[in-house]
Amino acid sequence: MAFTDKAPGNGPVRPADREPLRLAVVGAGWVARQVWLPLLEAHPAFRVDAVVDDDPAAARSAVPRSGHTRVLRRPEELSPDSVDAAVIALPNHLHLPVARALVERDVPVFVEKPVFRTLFEAQALALDHLARGSIGDLTLYSWSAARHRTDVCRLAELLPSLGTIRNLGLSWIRATGIPQRTGWFVDRRLSGGGALLDLGWHLLDVGLHLLGWPRVVRAAGTMSADWMERGEATADWRPRPQDGPAARPVEPVEDTARGFLVTDTGVGISLETRWASHQALDVTTITVEGTEGVATLRGTFGFSPHRLPRSSLTVLRLGREETVALPDEPVGIEYERQVDELARRLGGPRGGRPASGLGEGSMAEVTILASCIDHIYSAAGRTLREVS
User: In this structure, which of 115, 186, 218, 363 has its CB flanked by the most CB atoms within 10 Å?
Assistant: First the structure.
């Protein structure tokens, strides 16, 4: 992958005369091996200094070939003296304890989505920070790579021309995309949820970002799991578990979620997330309705091979539809831009400290997003009983 500065309007990622930032990747699973490690190792602003996993063999197999990467078993072995930041790419139930351990050691962290399983977990980390008498903001970052897609950026540029925004529609519907049949991913006690938490976190991150991060005051939601037992619905772009007896999850997750949120600014947000459906292709749709027009973006987020050939962006005004030109982009380029943005944040004048308030991939954003997910699960009667 090439790591030139592809995002419109962004400056250089890192001056050539500065030493690369030392990063640790905590976790040696699929997302670490297929996404984070290759991107970080190829990026001029970073050096992967450590891979941390309680399975040393898995960590060694994931270590880049550069030869300078340490293999560690516990995140507590990291410190600001040894690394400049860490990426947490672990199963969902480990995000809070590992983020807590690193933040306590003053190691800035970027946490893979979903950052936390519940609003309670997000608040628990913030309260821990206050209880220690810490001064300043939590050194935690997280934002969806989808923010850096050019089609999403073009949609954002159209918003002022749409007048007062009244409704936002968000959907990500897969044809066949149930990631796993067994293991932590489909056990809600560990994952925190299914399609809503997995796909909805991306959609809401983009949608709330477009709206300026309003709070949610009301919600409705429904869940179902009609596709979980259908073998043809399993994703073919993720490694399949080895043959053998399948352990049933104690608390299964949903494969389909539908929700409706009302913000404190009076905007309605409709949300649909599906791991499987009767569709032929995986389609992500964002519709923004304003008093002066309706903009609709259709494409496919993520890496699925079952995707639309290209994105489309249209604007409808008084019966007349206009097509907005979009460039062709390689699949996954938004993740390269996400790493570019992380380099800017960590290498900026604040020395890796997130800026206060919203719009910075901050805890404030994470907390609002987690509250939206909680609202929908609660409205559907699926409150997570165990969060620690």
Answer: 115
**Confidence (pTM):** 0.89
Three-state secondary structure of 277-342: CCCCCEEEEEEEEECCEEEEEEECCCCCCCECCCCEEEEEECCEEEEECCCCCCCCHHHHHHHHHH
Residue 357 in tokens: 């308030």
- Say how far apart CA 149 and CA 273 lie, in whole Å: 19
pLDDT in tens, 303-321: 999 999 999 999 999 999 9
Higher pLDDT, 387 or 67: 67
What six digits make up the tokens of 300? 């496919």
The terminus-to-terminus CA distance of the chain in angstroms comes to 38
**Per-residue tokens: 224:** 């179902």
Question: Looking at the predicted structure, is the pLDDT value of residue 326 above 90?
Answer: yes
**Is the predicted pLDDT of residue 237 greater than 80, yes or no?**
no
Least confident of 21-30, 65-74, 116-125: 65-74
Report d(CA 175, CA 71) in Å as an integer. Answer: 38
> Are residues 115 and 370 in contact, defined by beta-carbon separation less than 8 angstroms?
yes
**Residues 223, 44: Cα–Cα separation, whole Å:** 44
Q: Which of 261, 142, 277, 257 is nearest to 194 (CA)?
A: 257
Are residues 51 and 62 in contact, defined by beta-carbon separation less than 8 angstroms? yes
Say whether the peptide bond before residue 114 is cis (omega within 30 degrees of 0).
Answer: yes
Q: What is the pLDDT of residue 386?
A: 43
Helix axes 119-131, 363-379, angle to 10 degrees: 140
CA distances from 132 to 76, 98, 127 (A): 18, 17, 9
- How far apart CA 278 and CA 176 sit, in angstroms, is 9
- Rounded-to-integer distance, Cα 311 and Cα 284, Å: 9
What token pair was written down for 386?
């165990």
Sheet holding 165-173, edge to edge: 216-224, 256-263, 268-274, 165-173, 283-290, 293-299, 312-317, 320-324
Question: CB burial class (10 A; 0-12, 13-18, 19+) of residue 41?
Answer: middle
